[in-house]
């Protein structure tokens, strides 16, 4: 048969054929041909099996145009799925700081979508500084990476917080469609403990070494003491730089250099007031009387005795 055509007929309220006719062409005896007709399923349709009816029109070998009886086929309606699938690529930020959150977006529809506009939303303690992204087109099953700049408050706890993303895109027929919000978990992490700068570590090490060296030097110097001289052995002259004291002069303290003269001055009794003159004076007065001469002699002798002591 030739000029084979198929006409789709259905009465299901949730299934609407986009096109109802398909031209198959000529078919030899026992030959099979696969064809497709696009069908739209409404949002209210439940997942399950639907029955579609169709008729086949053709021309037989005699050239007569014929039409088949009503035929049926089963079509399975899959559960609803998101038009866009989003997976987080780097969903972590640090508390008190901002970071870039990367998302992988995949076209989950059976047609190419274009002018894909993404907009992100978040609640406290998250805030979005750069909340929009754009993808020119996505073929069925194709993926792309989009980025948002997200900040976390300094007092945020270390856990995951929700961020939602809406997608507005254009279908092949020119109609625009807005996706349902896609929720993504963004994890907030606590900042790492502060570390010393690299240049400060060697400075501190050097400072500790200097302190240790100073303490060690002080300890060694503190252990070296000069021994005290022994009391029972007087140091000799020239030993250890100790000088032996010599005789004192008159200028040093009124003491005569001669020890005997010093003893004489100390031991001689004080002369009485009636004593007059010395040995020379007695000689001058020797011509007076014998008593005076003798007295003078006694006085001289006494003076000599005193000197002898």
From TrEMBL:
InterPro entries registered for this protein in UniProt: Ig-like_fold
Key words of the record: Membrane, Transmembrane, Transmembrane helix
Keyword Transmembrane helix: yes
Compositionally biased intervals (Gly residues): 296-309
Source taxon at top rank: Archaea
Full protein name: COG1361 S-layer family protein
Keyword Transmembrane helix: yes
Region (Disordered): 224-309
TM ranges: 199-217
PANTHER family membership: NPCBM-ASSOCIATED, NEW3 DOMAIN OF ALPHA-GALACTOSIDASE, S-LAYER DOMAIN-LIKE PROTEIN-RELATED
